[in-house]
Design brief:
mainly alpha
Length: 51
């Protein structure tokens, strides 16, 4: 069952990438931006905690 779900997700992602590449790239940039902002917030927290 787990293999079927993984294959289904991979097929869905590939379909999305092939049919809407620009939208997919925008989504990746947005997610990476969120991760960057989160990492910066954590670093800022620890800097202010130890200063």
């Amino acid at each position: 069952m787990k293999k079927i779900i993984v294959v289904g997700v991979v097929v869905l992602v590939l379909f999305f990438l092939i049919t809407q590449p620009t939208h997919s790239a925008d989504l990746v940039h947005r997610v990476l931006g969120w991760l960057k902002d989160g990492a910066e917030a954590i670093v800022t927290f620890f800097r202010s905690l130890f200063s």
